[in-house]
Amino acid sequence: MEAIFSKTPNHVVTILFGVILFSLGLISVPHVALANVVDSTGVAANVSYSRTNPVVPISRSWYGDSLNLLSTQSFQDRYFDGRNVGIEMTASCPIDGSFTVSLFRISNGRASLVGSASFKRNGFTKATWENVGSGTYRFLCKKTLDGKRVTSTDVAIYSW
Q1: What's the rounded Cα separation, in Å, for the pair 91 and 43?
Q2: 131 φ, ψ to 5°?
Q3: What is the pLDDT of residues 10-56, one digit of tens each?
């Protein structure tokens, strides 16, 4: 082995070690599940089911809340000063499944649907809507009335 490296220029060895380390990094890094969901309004929601995210947004407006969902729960109207709006939480429920989180823009007292995303009843879900602009928004959560409650104590609502 020593004979091979003594005949190989240092920059080639450095490049080889860099390629090997980079390859090992790709193998050992957990992969994030991301999806673009386009609803009937045509506004895409980026949905992630993993806390590790390759791009961590710098929040301009941030609000913490909790979820106690039996059928429908609306979060308080909030002003967001960033161009993008997001919501994330780790939910818990006695049964698996999903529920819908919809984002509404509030203007002159009227709500218009920006888009919707499907959230897991158990585990972490994050949804973001990009380039929607600053303004007042409302998040609305809905699920089937099946007698099972979805809860979360770590709801984060933010813009960047």
Answers
A1: 24
A2: 60, 35
A3: 544 444 444 343 443 433 333 344 445 445 555 778 898 877 654 44
